[in-house]
Amino acid sequence: MIAALHKILDLPHIWARRLTRVQKRFILVPADSLLIIASLWAAVATRLGTLWPLEVWSRAWWLLLVLPIIGAIIFYSIGLYRFVLRSMGRHDVIRIARAGLVLSLVLAALGYFNERMFLPRSTPIIFGLVLIGAMVCVRAGLRNYYHWLHERGSNRRPVLVYGAGESGIQLVAALDAAKEFSPVGFLDDDPSLTGSLVAGRRVHMPVDIDALLTKYDVHDVLLALPLISRSRRKEIVRFLSQRSIRVQTIPSMVELVSGVETIDRLRTVGVEELLGRDAVDPDIDLFTSVRGRAVMVTGAGGSIGSQLCREIARMSPRLLVLFEISEFSLYSIEQELNAMPGALGAQLHAVLGSVCDQGRLEQIVRLHGIETIFHAAAYKHVPLVEANPFEGIRNNTLGSECVAKVAARCRVTRVILISTDKAVRPTNVMGASKRLAELVFQRAQQSADKTTFSMVRFGNVMGSSGSVIPLFQKQIAAGGPVTVTHPDVIRYFMTIPEAAQLVIQAGSLGQGGDVFLLDMGAPVSILDLAKRMIRLSGLEVKDRENPNGDIEIIFSGLRPGEKLFEELLVDGNSTPTKHPKIMRSLDAPSDLEQIDGAMITLRSAVERSDLEAVSNLLHRLVEGYSGNSIDGGTPSLIRNSPSVAPVAAEKIVAAG
């Protein structure tokens, strides 16, 4: 019975879909004519209190024929038959009101110039109001009928929209016209809106979310809050991340206004909104190291290197040299920069080469008259470098020495080394190799007369290759499990764009031999981060308390050379700089004179693949270096001899 009723209700919709737009207009015109006749009769009957007042219709019967014709002409000229009923909105209602007002004025004029009609003066006003209301109701009814059929035949997911402002209203309108989501209500912090209807949906307080999730079986919340502060946005995301719901957001107001994105272009809430730190807008006065200068970025295809290239390209350098050993990475960043709209007005040169090739480096620096070098070329994955120590030291330390020597010899104005928090009291070869690179740069500063060497030390950057966040996202998408090395491990995080901007600004602050530290905010528990990412994906954590959850978290154990937490300072002393997010380390390296001879010895040991000699040098030169040990204290560097199979990429579990 119900199925038969649904089929009957579907018949007008099926019939209407077969009609052309011209045919639909021919149907609307007589329909509106009937509404005009009915509205005129209702206005006269209401005014005179009788169903058929002969004193009017005996003389004005011709209005029932003429007024619909005049109305059709007015409605067509105003554009009443051009808008699509299923997308009827506020502007269309205004257009209907204009049409009704004009036609009521025509009726008033006819009554004014023909007194024999005995048409009461208030009749045109009543007529206009009745006609406008009838036309709006009929069209709204048809629109709602269409949407009812549309939703009944689809499997749209119910969603809540957080934000009942203008952006939320626009988002709901866009979702109503789409097929994926069905908005069932609003959440809004404004208590004055609670209980009211916005775009046909009731507004609720955020504290009601749990009841709404159950009532409507909601698994998605869409944020329509492009104008709120970063801190408030993070509070909301943290509040929502306590529940197993997928959270998506509309683009920022800048993206909407610029036309880069549209209101219905949803994206998953970024993990940066969980990390509890606010970015600081860049200080344009600190871009002097790149603006109008010849700049080279080593490791230009890497995570940090490529972002440095993007940021530098926007700062009007005279020319930009991309120096990279990986052909594919170099090709990718070159193509991207060439495609950036209006970002690169400078010359762009893509150069294949290794930072360990001192001759190639010097050739390129002299050829292009390089003034600033950002040295981002490095091997950074702790387990891989631990398993391949010679290549890690050759690239990270000896490659940095080549860059420093070429820069000093070619009188490059500024050279900035991209370092890491793992260089502080390192427990792994990667960190030790980067600390040695810092010492090499500080030693180079002592003998340089024209070049300013500086180093920038920071922690993990979100979304970089091999970092924990892309790994977690991949594991969650695959259905788990999510692997965390240790329940107590914590890390500092920063977005790649912010890190790159701060590196460029720190480079302009360098006075010679400086080690700059980027303010990474509060440390983040990796276990807590994993749980929040699972919940924000609309899934539940599977554990003892919730054995029926979706994604399990397993602990794989700390990898060789890995710490529970990282540090940015060797001796804990730092001083502020002009930029609130950049500090200057006061670490005082001891006896830099020994670095020259040590580097010769280190290079020889690497070329001979002498693990023991390399290990002894790292312990002697790098303060606080202590390799993980097993079997009676054998350093991890000694354990990972060439005979040991390198760690397979798919087995690497990131912790930061």
What would you say this structure looks like, in words?
The chain folds into three domains: 2-150, no CATH class; 157-269, 3-Layer(aba) Sandwich (Rossmann fold); 284-651, Rossmann fold (3-Layer(aba) Sandwich), CATH 3.40.50.720. Helix content is 46%, strand content 15%. The protein has 22 helices and 25 strands. The strands form six sheets. A nine-stranded mixed sheet has the order 10-9-8-11-12-13-18-23-22, with helices on both faces. Helix 2 (21-48) packs across helix 4 and helix 15 (389-409) packs across helix 20.
Strand content: 15-25%
CATH homology superfamily name of the largest domain: NAD(P)-binding Rossmann-like Domain
The DSSP helix count reads 22
How many structural units, i.e. domains? Answer: 3
Put the structure in a nutshell.
The chain is α/β, with parallel strands linked by helices. It is built from 22 helices and 25 strands.
Outline the fold blueprint.
Elements: H1 2-17, H2 21-48, H3 54-60, H4 63-78, H5 90-113, H6 123-152, E1 157-162, H7 166-177, E2 181-187, E3 197-198, E4 201-204, H8 209-216, E5 220-223, H9 230-240, E6 246-249, H10 253-258, E7 267-268, E8 294-298, H11 303-313, E9 319-324, H12 327-339, E10 347-352, H13 358-368, E11 372-375, H14 382-387, H15 389-409, E12 414-420, H16 429-447, E13 452-458, E14 460-462, H17 468-477, E15 482-484, E16 490-491, E17 493-495, H18 496-509, E18 514-518, E19 524-525, H19 526-536, E20 541-542, E21 551-555, E22 574-576, E23 582-585, H20 594-607, H21 611-621, E24 629-630, E25 634-635, H22 636-639
Helix pairs in contact: 2-4, 2-6, 4-5, 5-6, 11-18, 13-15, 15-16, 15-20, 17-19, 20-21
